[in-house]
Amino acid sequence: MKDLAAAYTRWRRTAVGHITEQVERDLMFALAGPLARRRVLDVGTGDGAYAIEAALRGARVVGADVDAAALDGARRRARDRGVSIDVMPASFEALPLASGSFDVVLAVTVLCFVDDPRAAFREAARVLAPGGRLVVGDLARWSTWAATRRVRGWLGNPTWRRARFWSRRELAAHVESAGLRVVDVRGAAHFPKSSVLARAIQPIDAVLGRLHAPGAAFIAVAADKPELGRSAP
Q1: Where are the domains of the chain?
Q2: Nearest-CA neighbor of 186 among 136, 221, 217?
Q3: Which has the higher per-residue pLDDT, 194 or 51?
């Protein structure tokens, strides 16, 4: 959505936003694994934060987004950080990319605004090379954050009126329907929208995620594309 990248950039500058971004980013890259010399697609790249981080870890990165202005900003930020990323206008549901062209696909807080999630997962699976990994992180359904956002949507906020929130089971089911094999599901941001509580819980947030503790504001699924000659179980 237009202006969404700018909103996330402003959010990261707040104390609770910075902590939330950190625990979510740590989870996503832990699930993605080593990225040096890997071909990475960051779908819905927005301001390029994840694309830039992947490039800093040695990946060859393409960032895709429907917002051309956001892509220009992502390219500038990458240059300022001393890395190079390719950017392209594209929606998650229709990626103008060759099949099997990426080792890792990242999708962070983009499915919540996608009109056709099944098409998006099919496209992610298509552009992955055999043995490649999809890591999807999005807004969790069962959290105080989601409850607040739903209320804001009911009151007319255009962003949250459109947004969809996800359960672990739903994300995993979509992954499997695209022919991928789920290898891990974890949560992050097990705190309400409070900088004090965020600072207190941050040191144990990753542990809570591995234990599938309730209340996570963010959930992430890692899934692998079967090697040639094999099918997902």
Answers
A1: 4-223
A2: 221
A3: 51
pLDDT of residue 107: 96
Q: How far apart are CA 217 and CA 146, in angstroms?
A: 7
pLDDT computed for residue 230 by the predictor = 57
Output the CA–CA distances (angstroms, integers) from residue 106 to 10, 79, 202, 212, 223, in the order listed: 22, 21, 23, 21, 11
The encoded tokens of residue 20 equal 């939330």
CA-atom Rg of the chain in angstroms: 17
What CATH number labels 4-223? 3.40.50.150
pLDDT score of 216: 92
220: amino acid identity, one letter? A
Query: Any bridge partners for residue 60, and if so which?
Result: 39
CA–CA distance, 223 with 128 (Å, rounded to integer): 11
pTM of the model: 0.90
Are the C-beta atoms of 221 and 171 separated by less than 8 Å?
A: yes
Q: For 103, left (φ over 0), alpha (ψ -120 to 50), or beta?
A: alpha
Kindly indicate the confidence band of residue 13, based on its pLDDT and cuts at 50, 70 and 90. confident
CB-CB contact of 56 with 79 (8 Å):
no
Contact 24, 44 (CB under 8 A): no
Say how many C-beta atoms besides its own lie within 10 A of residue 212's C-beta: 12
